[in-house]
Amino acid sequence: MKALILAAGYATRLYPLTEKLPKCLLKVGPETLLDRLIHKLEAIPELTDILIVTNALFYRQLSDWRKELKSRLPVKVIQDGTRSNEERLGAVGDFDLAIREEKIRADVLMLASDNLFDQDLNEFTAFCRQRSDSVSVAVYDLGDPKLAAGKFGVLELGADSKVTGMEEKPKAPKTALIGVGVYFFPKRSLTLVREYLGRPQAQDAPGHFVRWLLQKGQSIFGFRFRGMWYDIGDLNALKEANLIFQKGV
């Protein structure tokens, strides 16, 4: 299994902090977002290596970070050739780039680089292994559907954890379960990425790709994350997370 961290966005909602610094290298407490993710991934025994996709603007900074990193796993930084928010390939485009450039023929654990969470990823990967031929997604219960309105992708789960419905940022969510940017893609699903991107109406968020798979009749499963979770999408979220993590949590 390979890990793929998506870090090619431009984080315009966090300007001026991220005009010259990738969001994943922002510190929350004593560590960067990216370091915290690496620590989580290092605990997964079956993981063979970590790929990080960034853009051309921040490639040197991520490469310098990589030189200082001490990890038991091989970590490689690749860049997608873009230098502005208008040029960005999007998450699914960067996924496709990584598959092609690195010739990936293994299961992929994909993570957004702006996620902060308590959940042990070994529990998530164990859940995925039990359903090894299916895509699995991490979900988080906000407690109130209104909190998800217009902000997050919303999922419906059946009693067997099977995803029965997905909506992207609905105005009137049916549940309080949201996708949190952690996905498991079995190797057999990787060939479908190009097919999806070849559609005129293809959109760049991974949730759109997963919903397309669901509409094609693919089985998708949802794993509930427990504990704290933060999406560092704007300055307020970053400030709130820092208040929690500033003591070295």
Name given to the CATH architecture: Alpha-Beta Complex
Taking all Cα atoms into account, the compactness measure Rg is 17 Å
CATH class descriptor: Alpha Beta
**Count of runs of 4 or more consecutive helical residues:** 7
Spatial strand order of the main sheet:
5-4-1-6-11-8-12
Q: State the major sheet.
A: 7 strands, mixed
Mean pLDDT rating: 92
Q: Based on helices, strands and strand pairing, what is the structural class?
A: alpha/beta
Number of strands: 13
- The CATH topology assignment is Spore Coat Polysaccharide Biosynthesis Protein SpsA, Chain A
H/E element string? EEEHEHEHEEHEEEEHHEEH
CATH superfamily: Spore Coat Polysaccharide Biosynthesis Protein SpsA, Chain A
Could you say how many structural domains there are in total? 1
Share in β-strands: 25-35%
| End-to-end separation | 28 Å
Low-confidence stretches: none
